[in-house]
Specification:
Blueprint lengths: L4 E7 L13 E2 L2 E2 H9 L6 E6 L2 H9 L3 E4 L7 H12 L6 E4 L9 H14 L13 H5 L5 E4 L5 E5 L20
Parallel strand pairs: 1-4, 1-6, 4-5
Antiparallel strand pairs: 2-3, 7-8
Length: 178
């Protein structure tokens, strides 16, 4: 695979479920540093942390990461990655992998896989997903769900169960085989 892909790690302090989680430590490093070190294990052209928070900027700079400040008004990590790619002057023909800053156990080979998918299929966007095969994950708001078309295009993402049954949210649907 060509090394013309970049990894941008959008990082913010204001997580709604666990504020400050990126600076929590385990095994002697912050979650953010673990993610950054995973990204360095792949043949990317660059690895950059993009943040709107001075504390994250200082910590990332302290462990030697390439880090830049972005606008505080972004509604998503995708918007932060887009701004970072402009600030970095990344060519529009290059591939950008958006690595979530709270994924310290992300296998490096999956980063290469998604970059390869983007390169091989000439897609503008790609994401990795895995089928949900148990009730607990289906109900868990920390597990993002995706609805796909027959040709593997994402229609939408949700933290709620899909499908969501308003009147029976604690029961899986009964499927009838015809």
């Amino acid at each position: 695979m060509s090394t013309d892909f970049h990894i941008i790690i959008p990082a913010r302090m204001a997580s709604s479920r666990l504020p400050g989680k990126l600076l929590l430590e385990f095994s002697g490093k912050t979650i953010l540093e673990h993610v950054f070190l995973k990204a360095l294990q792949v043949p990317a052209k660059s690895v950059t942390i993009a943040t709107d928070d001075e504390q994250i900027f200082a910590v990332a700079n302290g462990f030697g990461a390439a880090v830049l400040m972005t606008d505080k008004n972004h509604q998503s990590g995708t918007e932060r990655v887009a701004e970072a790619s402009r600030l970095l002057g990344i060519k529009s023909t290059d591939i950008i992998v958006n690595l979530q800053a709270d994924e310290p156990q992300m296998p490096p080979e999956l980063l290469v896989q998604v970059a390869s998918m983007l390169q091989a299929e000439d897609n503008d966007w790609a994401t990795l997903y895995w089928p949900i095969d148990n009730f607990a994950d289906w109900q868990n708001p920390n597990v993002v769900k995706v609805v796909m078309t027959d040709n593997n295009q994402a229609l939408y993402f949700s933290r709620s169960p899909i499908p969501y049954f308003r009147d029976y949210p604690l029961q899986l649907p009964k499927l009838i085989a015809i």
